[in-house]
Amino acid sequence: MNIAVLPGDGIGPEVVEQALKAVKAVCEKKGHKLNYDFGLVGACAIDKTGDPYPAETHELCMKSDAVLFGALGDPKYDNDPNAKVRPEQGLLKMRKSLGLFANLRPVLTFPNMLHKSPLKSELVDGVDFMCIRELTGGLYFGRPQGRSEDGNVAYDTCVYSREEVERIVRLAFDFAMMRRKHLTLVDKANVLCSSRLWRQVTKEIEKEYPEVTTDYMFVDNAAMRIIQWPKSFDVLVTENLFGDILTDEASVITGSLGMSPSASIGLHTSLFEPIHGSYPQAAGKNIANPIATVLSAAMMFEYAFKLKEEGQMIRDAVTASMAAGVVTEDIANGAKAYSTSEVGDWIAGYIKNN
Ligand code: IPM
Ligand code: MN
What we know:
Layout lengths: L1 E7 L3 H19 L4 E4 L4 H7 L5 H8 L3 E6 L3 H4 L8 H12 L3 E7 L12 H4 L3 E7 L11 E2 L6 E2 L6 H17 L3 E6 L5 H14 L6 E6 H10 L6 E4 L1 H15 L6 E5 L5 E4 L16 H14 L3 H16 L5 H4 L7 H14 L1
Parallel strand pairs: 1-2, 1-3, 3-12, 5-10, 8-9, 8-10
Antiparallel strand pairs: 4-5, 4-11, 6-7, 11-12
The protein binds 3-isopropylmalic acid and manganese (II) ion.
């Protein structure tokens, strides 16, 4: 298997290093041949090449079976409204040019983390749903986008074609079939034309999946129900910006941003990344929680290589590390906290020895 490794900025390199340890341990144990190569993306790529997603990185990703990505972003760009090029553009360019149209963000609770959730334990215990966010369309990419000449009017456009909606809605139904057979389409069809297309297409495809119960929910209502009754969801599918917002909201249920992995799948390759950002305040301190990235590597085995058992080996090792209390300070709960690399070593060691 050929993997492109893009550590990115901030804590990206530290957490990716730990995930790589787990990947290597699994490959050694199962006898898979692993090839990997590093590439630049984000602020570090701008610093070295002027481009947040250089052609060289794109070529590397295109010839790889999967991309393992850390995070990108640097505060030095956030406070400069005139910055011509921003690290985030690298992420959008990468998603678009790799055709990564479906972003999968599982929302799961860990039994020994329930106390960390801001919600009542009985509400979150047993939460297990999959958010599927469309990733290459909508307001993020729609044209026209811009400012009037005098600068006093600004506009973005939400555009979706039938093909774009169909491919992700089908994927969502397929996921529902493998799970509890319950799909929720989240939209704003009472106001937005593009949402009415989503709803129409979903109603058509629904007929091909008679076993799946399909719900249609407005995004404002969904935002409320995710907090009020998170166990009522199984598979949630939605457009790009709604998905961006709802998945941040949903990640809070788990209790720590440092635990949530994601997969982006699509046309040319697939990409795996933690949903937390580059967390610049912690960069280089060896304190960041590597679990989200380690679990993203588990998703890589499962989705990119169809190696479910290998993915499970990683997940079991993560569960064991939490049970053993070998965790970083964000989830240590007052007990001894371990460093990023200690947690990574422990997880890789567990995989080797079990
Ligand atoms: C995410 C991030 C990105 C997004 C930003 C960094 C462009 O928030 O992956 O959710 O909005 O998609
Ligand atoms: Mn986001």
